[in-house]
Write the structure tokens for this entry.
Amino acid sequence: MPYLDQIDPIAVSLGPVKVHWYGLMYLLGFAVAWWLGARRARAGRLPGVTEAGFSDLMFYTMLGVVLGGRIGYMLFYGFADLLNDPLSLFRVWEGGMSFHGGLLGVLAAIGWWSRKHRLHYFDTVDFIAPLVPAGLGFGRIGNYIGGELWGKPTAGTVFDGWGVVFPRALPEPFASMSPAALRAQFETGALNAFARHPSQLYQAALEGLVLFCVLVWYSRKPRPRYAVSGWFALLYGCFRFLVEFVREPDAQLGYLAFGWLTMGQLLSTPLILLGLYWLWKSRSSPTLEPESR
């Protein structure tokens, strides 16, 4: 039997101030990344960089995530809206963040910080890569709690009879029903045909948990330059490309080609190619040894 997603997206209400689970998931992802990165910095995995220097790096990467994520979303997924209303770029409370835009923002921040500290760009990228999946995983859980970015319907497929019913994805008259009335309809089986893949949880598991475990394990000892970054790009690109097959395409874009290619797949393809290239390049690159402390 499908599951009805009726989780309140608001974690805490303090008068007019409402704290959403999505924001808390982002904070939790940053906290885990900061904790793991500080441990690696103390272990000398980024020679010449103190914990204070690492804190600066995290601050700039967080700015890169937020600014790049928002700008990337408007360019990749809401360009028409941006042209019609340029101020929509600043209405972040309306939602809309792009991983690929956030990644570009992080890479730009790393470039500026690495030049300031006179470090090889990819030594810093390799250091940061294992920290990123925590934020990806918690962010996707936030998407699930918020009932957004859902997957395709499971009815009429091999997954028929299984999935999650997302209230925001329902047609009328169900979309206007109160939570109690919707629950009553669900109990009768009237909503089973609207069950969807919980693609947010698929992404949380693959791009978050699996990628985190692989990269932390792989980077537990020094690796050649480009290797950790290569595995991150390759695995994330493949995971995202695959999940897009069961994720509902963005309504304003639909499929871009062949009746199945999505914007997420289009943006992930360069990551897959870059990952393969960086792994090839790592075969003849030096290994950054930890600094003794």
